[in-house]
Amino acid sequence: MEIQEITYRIERVKGGDKEAFGGLVDAYKDMVYTLCLRMLTSVADAEEAAQEVFVKAFRFLGSFQGKSRFSTWLYRIAYNHCISVIRKKVKVIDLVDEVPEGKVEEGEVDGLENITAQERSRYLKMALESLAETDAVVVTLFYYEELSLEEISTVTGLSSSNIRIKLHRSRKKMYQVIRENLKSEVSSIL
């Protein structure tokens, strides 16, 4: 959805046209659901959270001033809501995940070229699921949603330098997970 269309719909909703909000929901439902699923990991929890995020967004749309993109504002609501859900479940979020340094074998990198796109997707999903919730969200926002560091900072409340560190550590951990899974699959074949 183009910026003009988003602005038009927001103004219509602010003016009392509740049905105009449906277009915003349609445009952003996948984005919000994906973020909720990355943070909460349960399909049922993610669906419920996504619905609640849109209820909150509708309720507080009058406070949206247009200083950031609507998607950034909506991500912030979704992120904060998911953090609240996690806290209610008394789940501790591991904010820093140390990964041991290791050498990259040249053959391992070449091996990734030989697997199918579907296999790559499966390995990436497995590696992404191995990350702490906050780290998975940062990776999702940066690589899948292509938000800038500043936009991710607005959504998460983390500094840009902290986001860079999380991205670096997350890539290293994801590499380790993919590497270990590839080794175990090769061993099972031989």
CATH architecture of the largest domain: Orthogonal Bundle
Largest β-sheet summary? none
What percentage of amino acids are in beta strands? Answer: under 5%
β-strand number? 0
Task: Identify the overall geometry.
Answer: elongated
Low-confidence stretches: 90-112
Global Rg: 19 Å
Helix content: over 70%
Structural class: mainly alpha
Instruction: Report the span from N to C terminus.
Output: 50 Å
Average pLDDT level: 81
CATH class of the largest domain: Mainly Alpha
CATH superfamily of the largest domain: RNA polymerase sigma factor, region 2, helix turn helix motif
Q: Could you state the order of secondary-structure elements as H and E?
A: HHHHHHHHH
Put simply, the count of helices is: 9
Task: Give a verbal description of the structure.
It contains 9 helices and no strands. It is mostly helical. It folds into 2 domains: 86 residues, RNA polymerase sigma factor, region 2, helix turn helix motif (Rna Polymerase Sigma Factor, Chain: A), CATH 1.10.1740.10; 78 residues, Arc Repressor Mutant, subunit A, CATH 1.10.10.10. Helix 2 crosses helix 7, helix 3 crosses helix 4 and helix 6 crosses helix 9. The longest helix is centred in the C-terminal third of the chain and has 30 residues. The radius of gyration is 19 Å and the shape is elongated. About 12% of the residues have low confidence.
Topology:
Elements: H1 3-14, H2 21-40, H3 43-60, H4 70-88, H5 106-112, H6 117-129, H7 133-144, H8 149-156, H9 160-189
